[in-house]
Specification:
There is one protein chain. By secondary structure, the protein is mainly beta. Helix content is 8%, strand content 43%. It has one domain (7-140). It has one helix and twelve strands; from the N terminus they run H-E-E-E-E-E-E-E-E-E-E-E-E. The chain is globular.
Length: 141
């Protein structure tokens, strides 16, 4: 499954790219693991909002500080942003279908910037627990 930025995430990202803040400043970026999206499958869709996503139990979120992203330009006109691999630890059974990167502003409004269903998932975490590792990455052409 390819990464998908829902409509409201596209607006926020493009607002930042062209320098017009659509939302309040001081946003916090967070990496989340989710088990499903509402009552349907786990595939991100254009009209999704954070209210549709069901986060996993336990260690389900990691804050992504702006200064910790590595941004690089490569031959072929692509630019990418990579964050260090994040490890999520579970102490009980769970199911992990994918991940989402959200932005939460100072008043608590959360917008999905992008989400991706794991192509080889869902990952079933056994009763004794386990880990899931995600390396946040986005590439623009």
């Amino acid at each position: 499954m390819a990464l998908l930025a829902p409509n409201n995430g596209e607006l926020l990202m493009f607002g930042r790219i062209i320098g017009t803040e659509i939302f309040a400043s001081g946003d916090t970026l967070t990496l989340w693991l989710y088990k499903e999206i509402g009552d349907s499958d786990a595939t991100p869709k254009e009209g999704d909002t954070w209210a549709n996503y069901v986060p996993t139990f336990g260690d389900s979120e990691k804050l992504l500080a702006a200064d910790d992203w590595t941004i690089a330009s490569a031959a072929g006109d692509t630019t990418s942003a990579t964050f260090a691999q994040q490890t999520f630890t579970f102490s009980a059974a769970d199911s992990v279908a994918g991940y989402a990167i959200t932005s939460t502003n100072l008043v608590g409004d959360t917008t999905i910037l992008w989400a991706e269903e794991f192509s080889d998932g869902p990952y079933v975490i056994p009763g004794g627990g386990g880990t899931v590792k995600v390396t946040p990455y986005i590439e623009l052409e």
